[in-house]
Amino acid sequence: MNTISRLFSAFWVLLFIFVSASCKKSDPPVPVIDPFSNGGNVRNMIVVISDLHLGADTSYAECKFNLGPLEKLIKQIKASANVKELVIAGDLVDEWFVPATVNTFQEKDQADFVKRLAAANQGVFDAFNSIIQEGKILVTYLPGNHDLAITAADIESILPGVSQARDPMLGLGTYSPVDCPKIAIEHGHRYNFFCAPDPISNQDIAPGTIMPPGYFFTRIAALCVIQKNPAPGDTLPVVTPNTSGDESQDLLFRYWKTWDASIASLPIKNRFDEKIIVTNVNGFTGNYSVNDLVPFQLTPGGYIDVALSHGIQDHWETRQTLNKVAVHIPTAHAIDSVMSDTEVDHQANLQYFMNPASDKRIVVFGHTHVPRIDAGTSYDNKKCIYANSGTWIDNNPKLTTMNFVVITPQSVDASSQTLVKLYNFENEVVSQMAADAVRY
User: Fold this and answer.
1) In terms of CB atoms within 10 Å, which of 125, 144, 169, 379 comes out highest?
2) What is the pLDDT of residue 276?
């Protein structure tokens, strides 16, 4: 064999060894996760999804690019032989995230708005309705804060036949899945001073309204987004503590501090005395300015007042009673914690696990857009699990999006545990984010 032939043969031998070694060292394929399979033929799994924030105009809606993946996931749920229930835990229809200057109903009404919203998100609603019409999986809707004024009739018009879990007070709902009384699912806005229904404030100018101040905050936030986070066009006048020592005045100063921080985080081009917030929603008919929302003071240390939601600091106790908050939250704490995501999670523990009047062992909230699973302990030292179902908005700063929770109940004889798993569907690939289990 000549030199060239020997070199040629040696080359192919070395290439074979290299390729063989590379194949042996390559990572094994990542297993495909099927979150909607329990490994058997029993239909018992419960899927919780929330905070879809579907808008009537996709030019500014928070969920636009995630609509396709959402539709695909709903179709996967329908195809499952093991899913028993699908729970939509609030903020499905977004009536809040509308730029301040936009007329939400376009001179029509809420029923038209909801139908227009369904048309703008046709694929998603077709997927939901396909499940409802098939009848194998129970689909249950409960309201969040962004759809707290959307009526049962409005939801029925776009999701005919859907089950709805609603409290007597419009804008709230708590749900325990069929045959699972130890599980409680709600949106979580009931405990937030800015977001809980407010049937007391503003009745003189908007009779029957339940819109809390968070609605106006969100209108400004949406304007900030479409203005692309501009340099601020104005600044708020400083308010100082009232020197009288009056508790109501102290609470209103705390309320001002909350608004001050909120407005600073949401710059808009407009001056704060411009009547830019177009309402015509839930009893409101006027246009309002930022200055109408924020407490003001004519002299340093003097009397503090506010135009919209006048007296809101004085009726939080009554508001909680009407909203059926089991363990009342002190007003000062409620105002101070408005911007805290972890406060809502804390309320799941306080209202359910540490409450002797509650027997719930698993609680699922949405609202915060922070997906998580936390193990806890009840007042009588039993293990409990709290889960947050995250969100489906396109951009969830520093966090994942396209989240959902799956609960697989334990066997009737409690020989197994109830499994709670949190998943993500980004890039249309299912990944498990967290999991825990409890037996009760």
Assistant:
1) 144
2) 98
3-state secondary structure of 411: coil
d(CA 344, CA 204) in angstroms, rounded, equals 31
Distance in angstroms (rounded) separating the CA atoms of residues 417 and 409: 7
CA distance 113 to 111: 5
The structure tokens listed for 316 are 């939080």
Rounded Cα–Cα distance for residues 196 and 186 (Å)? 12
Whether the Cβ atoms of residue 161 and residue 152 lie closer than 8 Å to each other: no
Domains of the chain: 45-191+327-438 (3.60.21), 213-314 (no CATH)
Q: Name the DSSP letter for residue 236.
A: P
Spell 411-425 as b/e; 16+ CB within 10 A means b. Answer: eeeeeebbbbbbbbb
Check whether 8 has a pLDDT greater than 90: no
pLDDT digits (tens, 9 = 90+) for 339-352: 998 999 999 999 99
For residue 362, pLDDT beyond 50:
yes
The model carries a pTM of 0.92
In tens, the pLDDT along 279-299 reads 999 999 999 999 999 999 999
Whole-angstrom Cα Rg for the chain: 26
Query: For residues 361 and 181, what is the distance between their CA atoms, to the nearest angstrom?
Result: 9
Q: Which residues pair with 423 in a beta bridge?
A: 404, 432
Whether 67 and 126 have beta carbons less than 8 Å apart is answered as: no
Q: Quick one: pLDDT at residue 253?
A: 98
pLDDT at 12: 41
Give one DSSP letter per residue of 49-114, joined into a string.
E----B-S-TTT-S-STTHHHHHHHHHHHHH-SSEEEEEEES-SB-SS-S-TTS-TTTTS-HHHHH
Please compute, for residue 66, the number of CA atoms within 13 A of its CA located in the half-sphere on the CB side. 25
Amino acid identity at 346: H
CA distance linking residue 311 with residue 355, whole number of Å = 30
